[in-house]
Amino acid sequence: MITRLASAIRPRLTYATVVASLTAFVVLAGGAAIAAKQLAKNSVGAKQLKKSAVTTAKIKKNAVTTAKIRNGAVTSAKVKDGSLGAAAFQVAGSAYSHIVFSTAGAGAVAVGESATAVPLASSTYTQRAGENDFFYGAADVAFGPTCEAEREVTLYLLVDAPNPAAPTIADIVAGGSFRDQKGDVPSKRVSLGPFEANSVRFEPDVDTPHTLTLVALGDCKSGSGITASNPTVVVTGVR
Amino acid sequence: MQRIRSHLTYANVMATLAAFVVLIGGTAYAANQLAKNSIGKKQLKAKSVTTAKIKKNAVTTGKIKGNAVTAAKVRAASLTDAELSGAVPFTRVVEELRGSTTVALPSEPGMKFTIYPISGAYTQEAGRTDLYVGYADVTIAPACTDPQVLAFLTIDPTNPGELSMLDIGSIAGIGIFQETGNISTSARINIGPFPGGGSRFAPTGPTSRNLVLAVKSVCSAGDGVTVTDAGIDVIGIK
Q1: Cα separation, A6 vs B139, whole angstroms
Q2: A115, A121, B200, B230: which could join A215 in a potential S-S bond, CB 3.0 to 4.6 Å?
Q3: Global confidence as pTM
């Protein structure tokens, strides 16, 4: 039976038949797989991609760069709640209230009944056009053992004072004082806040440089020995 | 040779050509002819989509997962006020009220004030504490000796032209200029928050306010203080 079938097929086993059959087999059985593994460079474009084919797992880490994101695409819902800190913001250009200048000092100075400057590391800054500036500060004051109570110290922060040794009310932007009635507080950190009047420097039309001077005045019932040290000054701006 | 020639039939030649085309050129042919929508997520390798493969501006809002953008993904110092909504609870100027009329101030002692014209009506938002600052630019004539100028920023005063102790609760800002002799020909009076009354605490509902700038001058001799322009900023704190 098998011998009869073989002898019936053999006359048809020509070169052409065998090659054609093999070709058909390759194309039909393996061709697609071979083709998929051997896709030419840049042959898969937007048209070949199915909708939603590019899933998260298919995107390489950090592949989505700024230029790939459409302007305005990152909305509030896309930002993780509580994730953005000050580092993300251009604080310097912000209209919201923030510190625009700060400085400090170190050395102790003797304080008497007339205004004495407490040196600041940097005493000049520039107020930006359109910005309202407020002033705050602090300094350590100490009463020596020979300074008898009742004893007190007053600190004033002056802006552009023509004569800091004799400040006028228009010069003073912040003030603070401490009175030790019983003589039992040898030292105190005194804070300066907005002064009674003129405590703001209203928004100038153009950037305006200012000179800051911190002065201290003190008084003992008798004796002397008041010092002021470690001053800090902060300017906050709001637009 | 003769043996080969005897097999060079049409069928043999065509079969050989077909096999050649399929095996050598078939791959490229197949790739160039991938059907539309034929590549799905199964065909894409993980991490195969690199930066260069993503078209510019292709990532739209809908493509970004909620909460996917964290601080590390935001360029440092890149966000400005423009990206923040008006509801951001920070301190900033919420109203700017200005006047540019020239008004002469008579020199008179006592508590008589001149009202400087500023359109001062505004509404304080519910839940927002407002703080007031301002300025008044003045010129001082040589005839005025020892000039003193006092500026009060008042809110809803009963009689701003003649302030009394009864009106002290209406005072929100104060600015003072004083000089011995006659040195300055002009000055800016900065008006800062009035001690104890410089703010209006967050109301429970929107509240209409009327800001009035009351200014007066005193010269020990002579006259001649004039306000050339003035302004008020309302600073909102939430």
Answers
A1: 124
A2: A115
A3: 0.75
